[in-house]
Write a structure and sequence with these properties.
mainly alpha, two-stranded antiparallel ribbon, about 65% helix, Osmoadaptation_assoc
Length: about 450
């Protein structure tokens, strides 16, 4: 008897390759959840977080030993279930199946090479092991993860390797970092350099341009969020893969990404200037402040292009947010959140520079507080429209982190309390995920939407 995992982390477990089309169409269906934009922020979040307290967390379920044995030793039997879970849990889809995501399902059902097969199996075991609270299954995923790393290194050492398989393996191994195997953010620069090597080893091969472009953007956002969190420039940027990044028309998200790359380089400079005496490096302070204003101007110009409307009370109103997986609404709020976090980083950097120079920074403080309030509103819609737990965790992690960082810098301890309560609730809900490792993945989903 094979264990039916549908009750734990996927709504579907299928058994035949002839059902791939059904996987793709069913993965796009979401249960309807009505959301009222008129509700107060407090009421909405009480509703959304009541089930996220430790008392409501999913209880660990003990599978029969025979089922665990089959899961660990015949992992390939569940590969189609993993594909469905991957699409359902990681990508908020519309009812109309996206061809790119359908291609991902096909790739996961039929691994192109050994590294991809091992990496996919590792992710499945880590995810299901965490979701059902089974240490043995999680350890099986860890062993598969180590094997996948070795296999991918061997694959990349050959001159002729399958680019799609290598990229899929790299993507799955990246997602594995979301689970308890993560060693934290301190080792992420090595990860980023390794990812860059994978890209450079494969980008000269023909074919699969659209998929490579999507993965390149995915890796760019992972590296970029790491840079914004650590406040330092990183080796991997948009310029590292220009051919893939510039496929098609440059849209709002691409423009935001370029501004974010500029900002990540400025954050390190701001920290250095704030650590120096106020009478030192005056010209550099003025230049940096001017560069921050230029980024701020760019962000202001992009504000009108969002599908989110801000009313006079600084509340977000998103039309037609009615169901899980509404890509239009989820994308609108996710892009808005990304934009608002960049504005928060700009205003807090300006605030710090002015304060370190002994000047008044009241306007910058008010702007930062306004951004945090908007992030609180945005989180409601992110929770309501995300497809699965991993997508929810990724979407809300960055707003929580940057809001708390601002309140810590500005010493607004009372205002930070509600954010700490939300963080506690979310961490209880996503207990099997690495809370720190979620940060670089916060906006990676935008690359695929």
């Amino acid at each position: 008897m094979k264990p039916d995992l549908s009750g734990y982390s996927s709504r579907m477990v299928v058994k035949g390759e002839e059902e791939k089309k059904r996987i793709r169409s069913q993965a796009a269906q979401r249960p309807v959840k009505r959301v009222s934009a008129k509700s107060s922020t407090k009421e909405r979040f009480q509703s959304d977080t009541e089930s996220m307290t430790p008392g409501h967390a999913r209880q660990a379920t003990n599978l029969p030993q025979a089922c665990i044995h089959d899961l660990l030793n015949e992992t390939n039997v569940y590969r189609t279930a993993l594909a469905a879970n991957f699409v359902e849990g990681y990508f908020p889809m519309t009812k109309k199946v996206d061809t790119r995501l359908a291609g991902i399902v096909d790739a996961w059902c039929a691994p192109a090479n050994a590294p991809m097969q091992l990496a996919n199996d590792a992710l499945m075991l880590l995810h299901f092991g965490g979701a059902i609270g089974n240490h043995q299954v999680s350890m099986g995923g860890l062993r598969k993860y180590a094997s996948a790393l070795r296999s991918l290194r061997q694959e990349l050492s050959h001159k002729e390797h399958q680019s799609v398989g290598a990229f899929c393996a790299a993507q799955a191994l990246l997602s594995c970092e979301l689970y308890s195997i993560s060693s934290g953010l301190e080792t992420w620069e090595k990860h980023i350099l390794g990812i860059k090597a994978v890209f450079q080893a494969s980008k000269y091969l023909d074919g699969h341009t659209e998929y490579i472009a999507g993965l390149a953007k995915y890796l760019c956002h992972v590296a970029l969020m790491y840079a914004l969190v650590k406040r330092k420039a990183v080796a991997l940027s948009q310029d590292s893969f220009p051919d893939a990044m510039h496929v098609g028309r440059i849209g709002t998200l691409d423009k935001l990404t370029r501004l974010a790359i500029r900002l990540s380089k400025l954050l390190e400079t701001v920290d250095s200037l704030c650590a120096a005496c106020k009478d030192e490096r005056i010209s550099m302070r003025l230049k940096t402040f001017s560069q921050l204003q230029a980024v701020e101007k760019g962000l202001n110009l992009l504000s009108e292009q969002f599908e989110c409307n801000i009313d006079g009370r600084s509340k977000i109103e998103v039309p037609n947010v009615s169901s899980h997986g509404d890509t239009r609404s989820h994308t609108a709020v996710l892009v808005f959140t990304f934009h608002r976090i960049l504005r928060l980083l700009v205003s807090t950097s300006q605030w710090r520079l002015l304060r370190s120079n002994g000047q008044s920074a009241r306007k910058e403080r008010l702007a930062s507080n306004e951004s945090v309030e908007m992030l609180l509103d945005a989180m409601h819609y992110l929770v309501a429209t995300a497809g699965g737990h991993v997508a929810k965790a990724q979407a809300i992690r960055a707003p929580v982190f940057f809001a708390l960082r601002w309140y810590q810098h500005s010493e607004q301890h009372k205002a930070s309390q509600r954010w700490r309560e939300l963080e506690t609730n979310f961490r209880a809900q996503f207990h099997y995920l690495s809370w720190d490792a979620l940060l670089p993945f916060s906006f990676a989903a935008l690359a695929w939407l």
